[in-house]
Amino acid sequence: MRTSVDSPRNMQLVRSRLLKGTSLRSTIIGVIPNTSDPTSDCDDLPSLHRIGTAALAVQVVGSNWPKPHYTLLVTGLCRFQILQLLKEKPYPVAEVEQLDRLEQFTNQHKSEEELGELSEQFYKYAVQLVEMLDMSVPAVAKLRRLLDNLPREALPDILTSIIRTSNQEKLQVVAIRPTRRINHIPSATEDEEEEEDHDDVVMLEKKIRTSSMSEQALKVCLKEIKRLKKMPQSMPEYALTRNYLELMVELPWNKSTKDRLEIRAARILLDNDHYAMEKLKKRVLEYLAVRQLKNNLKGPILCFVGPPGVGKTSVGRSIAKTLGREFHRIALGGVCDQSDIRGHRRTYVGSMPGRIINGLKTAGVNNPVFLLDEVDKLGKSLQGDPAAALLEVLDPEQNHSFTDHYLNVAFDLSQVLFIATANTTATIPPALLDRMEIIQVPGYTQEEKIEIAHRHLIPKQLEQHGLTPQQIQIPQVTTLDIITRYTREAGVRSLDRKLGAICRAVAVKVAEGQHKETKPDRAEVAEGEDCKEHITEDAKTESISDTADLALPPEMPILIDFHALKDILGPPMYEMEVSERLSQPGVAIGLAWTPLGGEIMFVEASRMDGEGQLTLTGQLGDVMKESAHLAISWLRSNAKRYQLTNASGSFDLLDNTDIHLHFPAGAVTKDGPSAGVTIVTCLASLFSGRLVCSDVAMTGEITLRGLVLPVGGIKDKVLAAHRAGLKRIIIPQRNEKDLEEIAMNVRQDLTFVMASCLDEVLNAAFDGGFSVKHIVERLNSKL
């Protein structure tokens, strides 16, 4: 027997603990530490029990660091009974009577004669109890061998240490004669089994049988619950099996919500929640209409592709609200383990189901709206490819029997409406992209941003900051200034943050006005009547922050104009610099597409004496470098035709001449073929000495023969040019069909030039044209 002593003084308590009573075959003698632990099971022991166990100290091991702690190894000898307590201090001393003979357990034959058939029957019951456990566990196998090797009369003591009983019950067993303990133990075990009928395992089995899970899942769960009953709770597998069964019960196998299929109400709800996005809302209404005609329609796999801040995630939430379904968002950005999708196998420690099954458990129904956010940012690692794991999830022909590794049974996902979001399709694997219906969500025009701001963003910010329309007014002209001078984005996230900054500044003024305790006198009132908290167009008007020193509270509502914007948001971040950049030859404006939306891109060129080398800077990709080489080759082959010469007057543009092409914003990686026409125009401007029109932007791929090929992202590029204040856009002829997606008010503000060859591009990019005819006319006019 082994006991722990936490201080040298408690070594004296060991002798007292020997009187506390424990079985002769027990393994531990409890020692109460200096401070009583209210949760300890030793608290239910009496101060001194009548029956105890005598023991022989065999070994004492311990140390004084970091605190005194000792372990005492003792061997039990026999039971004794206290006759009289002689003294209690410094340690208890008593007159005792020996109850058992030391040689009693050495004479096995005589003991077996006394116990007779009762001992053998008890042995059989003990063996049956142990064999119900998992024999593959080393501790269980060792206990089975111990039953065969121990004397029969020692079995009651062994069983007492196994059964979950209190110390009081163990003391009752130690007080009984060994020959009578066999009769006492079965009654205790019977009481224990009766309590198990009301255990949680029984309730869990009832839930499994009454659940609506599939036949395959029910069969697996019943098999697992049978194994669970045979396991001791101390086994690690017990908790894993129980968690698995509880998850199986909680999953919504047949529980679903009924869709609201009123098309008119859905249209009104979508229009109220989101401005513009006509193409997207049309597709949602089509789904509702088909679902109304066919109830068993499988859920479509939609993928909203567009720049950040255009409302892709909020549209998914609105769709769930429109249908009356539960909504669950799964963030996939940075996920690089396929177990996040399919789950872990239950053989691993800490295994858990994948995010799909966890989402169904959270939603509580089998037909929620699942938003797979940032599906284009999935990673890949040694743990597998999560994009490949999504192939089964997002395939309507396969997901009716989706098998999670943790569940290891099929679950029907065919009624789930999956909506994925992405900024670009370039990083989505082709196999996964093929399983989704792509719906482009482009950026907003300035007019759409103004409407969104006054319909949704400003009311939301007023509510978040505790303001009312009677306290602050933001005119549409001010909103336009914020959009054009303080933000340059496809979405409205930066616009929302700027509006929040304005509301915070106004909230400070309103709070200061409400907490002024001193009242101004009449002279101050008369003097301050004309001092309104209205920011006029006069640049000398005091800012909102300066009015904190006024004695009077601000007059409501506080009007925000351009001067107030400068006081709150600082100087404008974006100024129209197009005309300044195009004030010398060798500069042209291109249009680029990025995951954040369309952008205008300046291309600059210069020439100097050299050896005919072409230098490219600005973090260019291989495709853009090839476009630059194509452009210079085409110009060299047509230099005589367009009268293009180098500094020495030679038609060989690279003769003793080096050319440097630079794409500003060098920290940003650039690639793609759509800059071909811009590079040609930039070099033509450089060698001809003519300026490119300052209101022209262009995009298109070129060939070595001078053809202009179509490119993608036309709508985002056009919106970027419109935001920058450009008026004329050159696009490939075959991209004319893409203009139908652009709002009518934007098309009316712009002039589009459809070009099928580089001759048409150069004629549109320069005032007076750039063809041979125009060059001859220009030369004649000079003569």
TrEMBL record:
Enzyme class: hydrolase
InterPro entries recorded: AAA+_ATPase, ATPase_AAA_core, Lon_bac/euk-typ, Lon_lid, Lon_proteolytic, Lon_Prtase, Lon_prtase_N, Lon_prtase_N_sf
Positions of the Lon proteolytic domain: 582-768
Annotated Lon N-terminal domain residues: 1-194
UniProt entry keywords in alphabetical sequence: Acetylation, ATP-binding, Hydrolase, Nucleotide-binding, Peroxisome, Protease, Serine protease
Keyword Acetylation: yes
Pfam family, one: Lon_C
Amino acids binding ATP: 306-313
GO-annotated cellular components: peroxisomal matrix
Catalytic-site annotation from UniProt: 674, 717
GO MF annotation: an example: ATP binding
Gene3D superfamilies: 1.10.8.60, 1.20.5.5270, 3.30.230.10, LON domain-like (2.30.130.40), P-loop containing nucleotide triphosphate hydrolases (3.40.50.300)
UniProt-listed Enzyme Commission number(s): 3.4.21.-
Subcellular localization(s) per the UniProt record: Peroxisome matrix
Superkingdom of origin: Eukaryota
Gene Ontology BP, a term: protein import into peroxisome matrix
Motif (Microbody targeting signal) on chain: 781-783
Family: Belongs to the peptidase S16 family.
Cited HAMAP family: lonp2_euk
Subunit organization: Interacts with PEX5. Interacts with TYSND1. May interact with enzymes involved in beta-oxidation of fatty acids, including ACOX1/AOX.
Matching PANTHER family: ATP DEPENDENT LON PROTEASE FAMILY MEMBER (PTHR10046)
Role of this protein: ATP-dependent serine protease that mediates the selective degradation of misfolded and unassembled polypeptides in the peroxisomal matrix. Necessary for type 2 peroxisome targeting signal (PTS2)-containing protein processing and facilitates peroxisome matrix protein import.
Protein name: Lon protease homolog 2, peroxisomal
Organism per entry: Dromaius novaehollandiae (Emu)
Lineage: Eukaryota, Metazoa, Chordata, Craniata, Vertebrata
